[in-house]
């Protein structure tokens, strides 16, 4: 089961930690903000749940949330 | 639960065929009651059932089924009548509050009864605050209604912005892990409804859901308010607000309102600045309803119609709207803050014929950078407008890439600059 | 274990803890600017900041626990958490207790950051800037090694590195050092 990674864009400052932790899913756009590699919502497959949780925990702005967690 | 049609109480006066919201000749309470009668005393469950049968959808732009929203809000709820109308091309909410404020108040009371709310807010444009205050002074509302003047900004009408403002915060969209219907004003379940939606609710409470759906189309029931702009000086001349039944064709509405024969129109922007361009004359007979506009990728939104003459340049008009929308970014979300100005810049360059081939790709790319990446629908609404312009004015886009313009094709060098 | 060994362990773990906290503070300051720090990317900086902090805390616990059994220090459980009550150099040891309290507050709020929210976390996290110099002064004033050259040298290196990082990552220097932060890149191309 995949879960959506939700970004609070009002809090995000494009520090880029999440993109570093989830290179399979995210990159940084030219301003540094996390950008989905595929269009649509940011989906995290099961096997990346760990790094995704870490990204949520380590975000300097607490701008991330894994859906239904 | 079985669906039961509500028979209007005996002696209840139905508004005449045609105008419903605008049936009363003046805004006073006496005229209001003489026109519509009083709301019969029925249970909240019965009211909700009628709303369900009516098929009423939100008239603020999103078109969400009103019954589902009403069901979602329970407990110590708060009702908010949203008349912020941040969309500068729309006038219908202000016009409604001028002409039928009592219908809106009726709707607030009905929504409060259904949800059990003890408290309500009316968040409306500053110019119509006196109208609403006067109407409130003429009656004794069954629920405490606080009138608040809306901040004059495009994004101020977004639901989260309304709630933030009424929570004494800035009138800016907010990100929350909770939905507003769960936690809104004072962390209480909050129902935010557009004032027109509430006015319809006031009528459904009187005449029932079957009556409401007796006009319109099966998927878009009832009437709607539309702000139609005259074609001559788009966006500068005062528009007209009409009440129309869903299913009416673009031709029927634009013929009297556009101020120019419909054959001389090349497109119409439906829904406002966050809306969709629809090509004319092909769509002239498209019914104004969800199904009728679907094939053009459009929706009625808040009911704004901006027709474009064949002698005007759709790309230039779109460019000026996109530039405006970029300035209206609340500067809270990075992609919107940086992406919309870039999109506006690229679109303006394309519209001005300054880019050469590939100019349209730059527009598409910058549109892709803002989509789905904000706390509110401002970026998405803007790209919807942009993408529809690229689609509807496709030929003109190609011409512009070569520095020419369809609207000036008669000029020397095809209007090249 | 002999008393001497305990004493050495207490001193050593205290010094190691201070050095680690210095690294933590330096990285914390360095990462505030939002730019890559010292060639490491933010992820590395954040991870090292976090791990070093937890490691420093481990050494701090060793430092305190060994002192509980130390006949000279005569520390009891109350003195560990309530400052300025110890029998041995109450003021200087009290500073250590104070630093421990602050370190615990900063660590606990960091572990619960997503629960308590950014604002509360940040407010408490600022205490780290008080905790570190207090710990440093505690080390100078209360230990057996207080006038030894090697400890003063270590302290000096700690102070200099933190000041250096603070100065080099000060926002005023943003324009001249390193590429600008994403937010100032704007949309002009």
Write a structural description.
- The complex is a heterotrimer of chains A (69), B (417) and C (189).
- With 69 residues, chain A is of the alpha+beta class.
- Chain A has one domain (3-66): Alpha-Beta Plaits, CATH 3.30.70.20.
- Chain A has 2 helices and 5 strands.
- Chain A has helices at residues 17-21, 49-58; strands at 3-7, 26-28, 34-36, 42-44, 64-66.
- A 3-stranded antiparallel beta sheet of chain A has the order 4-1-5, with helices on one face.
- In chain A, a hairpin with a 5-residue loop joins β2 and β3.
- Chain B folds into 3 domains: 29-213, 3-Layer(aba) Sandwich (Rossmann fold); 223-309, Ubiquitin-like (UB roll), CATH 3.10.20; 314-415, de novo design (two linked rop proteins) (Up-down Bundle).
- Chain B has helices spanning 29-36, 44-54, 66-72, 92-99, 101-115, 129-137, 159-166, 195-207, 209-213, 250-257, 290-294, 314-327, 334-351, 359-370, 378-392, 394-401; strands at 78-83, 119-124, 144-149, 190-194, 223-228, 240-245, 265-270, 276-279, 304-309.
- The longest helix of chain B has 18 residues, at 334-351.
- Chain C has 189 residues and is mostly helical.
- Chain C has one domain (3-185).
- Chain C has 9 helices and no strands.
- The chains are: A alpha+beta (69), B alpha/beta (417), C mainly alpha (189).
- Chains in contact: A-B, A-C, B-C.
- Chains A and B meet through loops of A and α13 of B.
Question: Which sheet architecture does the biggest sheet of chain C show?
Answer: none
How much helical structure, as a percent, in the residues of chain C? over 70%
SSE pattern of chain C: HHHHHHHHH
β-strand percent of chain A reads 15-25%
The averaged pLDDT of chain A comes out at 90
Distance, first to last CA of chain C: 68 Å
Overall shape of chain C: it is globular
Q: Tell me the total number of β-strands of chain C.
A: 0
